[in-house]
Amino acid sequence: MAKKNKVILIIDDDPDMRSYLRKLLEGMGHEVHEAGNSRTGIKIIDEVTPHLILLDINLDDESGFNVIGKIRQLDPFQRMKILMISSLSSKKAIDLSKKLGTDGFLIKPINNQTLSTTMKKMLPELNFPVAKNIDKEFSNLMGKFHGQIVKISETSVILQSKVKFFEKRKLQIDSIFLNRNDLNKTQLIIQEASKDVSTGTYNTKIQLIGLTDNNLKQIRKLNTKKA
Amino acid sequence: MAKVEVDEELKDILPSFLENRNKDILTLKEALANNDNSTLEKVGHKVSGSAGGYGFEDLGVIAKDIELASKAGEMDKVKSLIDSFEIYVNEIEVVFV
């Protein structure tokens, strides 16, 4: 059964359209983000990795058709689904959308019923892949994602991100924070399965192993600074 | 003016939608006075896309006609449509369902 709560981004230059779609989608239980132009849209996509993007064709700053290419650069395996929205009901626009690899087309005005039916139909497809049975000794899984270290102690860090970890595994993180604080040589081990913070956001406790005296001093300094 | 049925779910975002349509009336009149067809088309296009979703199908049709008449350069028609747009917005009577 597909989980209902999905992360959805609306890219449309009309604030009334965005408010309307947000209202309906939040009413369906989804987490909704908004962008009024393509630049902000791309930034949000990079930050929140939405399951679905509702993309208007006629944006003020550029055509929605151009934005598709930029989205696919961030998501070459087309994990994020794209629904084009437009007042253009021409066959040409719909064909071009299909050709550019989008997943559907909604013609404005969009009523509650149409949106609800489309979402119900799309829901099973709005899932990101899960990596299973990764061999502990021989396999590596590499990924790029936004995350934030929200807590650090002398034994562990809490990583907040959109990635959910299930098993106790060694982890390598190329993080500006860890590099800056000279913690990049420390061994990292996922201590327990990630915990849900909010829709699609997880906290993962990561054990720090092999900390030097300098590392410990630096961590204490960081926590004193915060306090 | 007939009563318009609007989804109860949209109650808190409706005032902002109507306020923006009042702003559109001024923008449309100014654009008409300046023969600014691009703005007329843009406003018409925008409202034709959103009005129907909120429940104002007739306003969406007027807005679409403003877009098309501006594109065709039929300015007398545009003027009359802007009047209809203004009357509609001023006389709207909403019933939440």
Number of helices of chain B: 4
The count of DSSP E runs of length 2 or more, i.e. the number of strands of chain B, is: 2
| Tally of DSSP β-strands of chain A | 11
**Helices and strands of chain A, in N-to-C order?**
EHEHEHEHEHEEEHEEEH
- Widest β-sheet, arrangement of strands of chain B: 1-2
Distance between the termini of chain A: 44 Å
Q: What's the overall geometry of chain B?
A: elongated
CATH class of the largest domain in chain A: Alpha Beta
- CATH architecture assignment of the largest domain in chain A: 3-Layer(aba) Sandwich
Our estimate of the beta-strand percent of chain B is 5-15%
Question: What is the compact description of this entry?
Answer:
Chain A has 227 residues and is α/β, with parallel strands linked by helices.
How would you describe the overall organization of this protein?
The complex is a heterodimer of chains A (227) and B (97). Chain A has two domains: 7-125, Rossmann fold, CATH 3.40.50.2300; 147-226, no CATH class. Chain A is 33% helix and 25% strand. Chain A has helices at 15-27, 38-48, 64-74, 91-99, 112-122, 176-180, 213-226; strands spanning 7-11, 31-35, 52-56, 81-86, 104-107, 147-152, 156-161, 170-171, 187-190, 195-198, 201-209. In chain A, α2 (38-48) packs parallel to α3. The longest helix of chain A is centred in the C-terminal third of the chain and has 14 residues, at 213-226. Chain B has a domain at 43-91. Helices cover 73% and strands 8% of the residues of chain B. Chain B contains four helices and two strands; from the N terminus they run βααααβ. In chain B, strands 1-2 form a two-stranded parallel sheet. In chain B, α2 packs antiparallel against α3 and α3 (57-72) packs antiparallel against α4. The longest helix of chain B has 20 residues, at 14-33. Chain B is elongated. Classes of the chains: A alpha/beta (227), B mainly alpha (97).
